[in-house]
Fold each of these.
Amino acid sequence: MLSLHKNTKGLEQKSLEVAGELSSIPPGEPVLVVCHLDADGITSGSIIASALLRSGAAPHIRVVKQLDEAAIAEILPIKARYVVFTDMGTGQRQLLERFVSGERRVFIIDHHQPPPISQDGGDSEATSDIMEFNPHFFGFDGSTEISASGTAFLVAKKMSSENASLAPLAIVGALGDMQDKGDRSSLVGLNASIAEEAQRSGLIAVSKGLKLYGFESRPLLKSMEYTLNPYLPGLSGDEGACFKFLKNAGIEPRKQDGSWRSISDLSNDEIRQVTSALIKYLISQGLSSQDAESVVGVLYTIKSEPADSPLRDAREYASSVNACGRLGKYGLGLALCLGDRTGALTDLRELLLEYRKKISGYLRWLESNPSALKVMNSIQVILAGSNIDDRMIGTIISIAFSMKPFTRSKPIFGLANAEGVVKVSARGTPELVRRGLNLGTAIREASEQVGGTGGGHNIAAGGQVPVGKEEDFLSIVDGIVTKMIGGVKL
Ligand code: C5P
Ligand code: C5P
């Protein structure tokens, strides 16, 4: 069974064990690191690759959309005695058994909840040659307290104390996975310990402020326009509306020389003024006071990044790496996380423009196609067909929570066409999870009943179902969710 108490000693021992094995890989030996395409995937892969490089091994990284038969078939022929999966593997353990043959040594460094079959107390690797490190086995919740990059960081630090410098990447990964669910959007649990340590050693600064996108690096007007989480109805994506909003709030958006004002140009009184105007405006737009107030929160700043860099604010860093992954620019995401601050930064600025355009286009499509929204007993569904890229559907449903006509009282599911299958993504809220929602379990069970696959966290999960089975899947998953949260009245 999974441990119910937090077994800190066990976690420590396991990280030491994995670190010991990885450190003993002979110098120059190729190691294949396979990671997921989102921010936590790419940062976790980069942490392990950096630690391996430091210890003398020769890592190369492969980013994949999901760990399925097709991905395994692609990876199998790659010649590497050592393979490390990060941010994936726990839910695909059986599939990975095929991967283990002869001399091959396989590691899983993951934070997804284990399917029932591998809930055997963390010693599951005793039965095979896979060495698996997942904080769930030691009573730590991988959907809120630690990300894959945090888990990878625990191992990296045991490989060498010098790897403590990788802590900012662990924070970026946790924020990318939206684990900032503590008071005022702070990190909690093991994530908070990593952040405290990084703050003590001067790597990051932790402060409270407006959680607008790129707040430190961009003009106030632009950071409002670019903020998508929370979605600012009537402001996100609309420069003219943000200009008017600031004027109405009594804030002059420009300096006397005509250039835009950024946060450092505003007095404390003006910051207070804009904050309270924004909260009032969001409430007037139908957001709950809790959601509206979520524009103020704990900010994590990476001190070594220059003030105007999209990598200085750890949330913006996460969203940048996520954009690279979601647009298939894996090399760029990895280059940034591995420390390239020259060409990669220029490429990133261009890519971010493209990413924002794509998201705005998808949101416009959603707003003008109400028939794509299906409201069921306990879930709300976006039927995107081929109108939203399957790699972006998860991002869009996360944003949809703060958009009309979506409600926070039901999880949002998104269905998008992928190559020969239908990609499913689902997102919940902490409140729904408190009431018993477990999207990872719901998607796994429902997709398996229609011949598909899936899994993930209680609050965010994904999967794929065969074409033509969408309706069956939705009615099964709606039934499961109804049982979990007890049916929700509209
Ligand atoms: O594969 P992985 O665990 O890294 O991905 C989790 C996904 O769930 C991320 O894309 C993250 O943005 C999303 N998420 C979310 N809302 C939450 C928690 C996670 O959208 N509250
Ligand atoms: O793909 P999406 O961003 O919606 O994934 C949400 C979460 O579900 C991620 O943590 C992802 O790793 C997980 N997932 C999974 N099995 C799948 C698809 C997604 O565990 N087949």
Amino acid sequence: MGHDLSQDAEIWDDAYKLDRAHVFHSWHAQRNLDPTEVVTGHGVWLKYGDGREMLDFTSQQVNVNIGYQHPKVIEGIKKQAELLCAIGPDYANLARGRAASLVARRAPEGFDKVFFTNAGADANENAMRAARLFTGRDKILSSYRCYHGNTGAAISATGDWRRKPNDYSRGHVHFFTPYLYRSEFSATTQEEECERALAHLEHVIQFEGPDTIAAVLLESVPGTAGIIIPPKDYFKGVREITKKYGILMITDEVMAGFGRTGFWFALDDYDYTPDIISFAKGCNSGYVPAGGVIMSDPVAHRFDDIVFPGGLTYSGHPLAMGAIVATQEAMEEEHIVDNAYTIGKDVLGPQLTALYDKHSKIGEVRGKGVFWAVEMVADRTTKEPLDDATMKQIVAEGNKRGLILGVHNNRIHVTPPCVISADEATQGVEILDQALTAAGC
Ligand code: PLP
């Protein structure tokens, strides 16, 4: 017997009670969850169930790059819904073709084909599959400081705690990527960190056996792991090493792509070309789930005459494609990527750096565009991470003052939608300043 549906009717108007009764949430023990009800949003603002208007410094899962309820994206989804809501991946469909061409044109020369997925994890899953089939090799090398998604191979490629209870895929090896603030290589400058991290990677490749390695998979900016901006020459060095050993390079642009760093792709700020790019989140700001893999021509052509053994019922779902087309067009027309760049350079960068001068518990401020981390420490000399209770207090103090803050371990991630104005960014930083003071930082 199922449960009594009349109980649902009684609490039909109560989002909170329904949630607690029936929704099983991601990444949490369920008992003590206390989710906030959100009713609607516009731009960088969310309206809570209690009527409060909140300034969102998170973009949710760092995906709502174009902000909430963008009218052109809503219109694009509506138009597509009226025309065709569902069509299988084997057919040609105008929305899918246009979405593919709009995404591919943001990639480097020679990336013409897009395989659509439902999200970022399955984008990485298929990127790794393509690399393994292309090379005939098995292993994927990735960073300890990364997140690549919550499916079989993607979670095994992930470096953080989420891999450990889920680590059933074979052929994954981890290594350390540059992070000068907590250098694994005793480096004191970015140049040293870069050089030593590259030497470390080459040693790992040599010890693993180069002819067993299909690909090195790296986020162009490790996001969840701490918004750690790689040194200028790091990817160029990785490219040289991977070429030397016939290993492919997969760049994960799922979080960093589509304006987040003030560039269409974060890799645009570096001097290298990978073999495969994975994307999701910002491609349509999560209005309808979508992700994908952009393949360089040699990788795509490998499957001209042999079957690519991967597919999804919803690969290139028309509503998701309509949302991609509208998002890409609106981002271009409204210069949203340029806005993210300028906000980073002129507002968030200088203002967050000023907070460092004022609050002794800030260990480091780093980032670009609308992608910033404020790393909190108990002591600047020892760099001991600030305790969880104080981190929670900072979030609560921000919340009281109308600001939604994202916290990962001892870091505050400042990642507002790319459409944020200078005034809104300043307002948010002012509240963060007050929250830090109130929490004794
Ligand atoms: N790759 C990166 C860099 C991410 O940040 C994420 C999600 O946060 C993923 C992949 C997984 O994407 P999704 O949650 O859409 O599967």
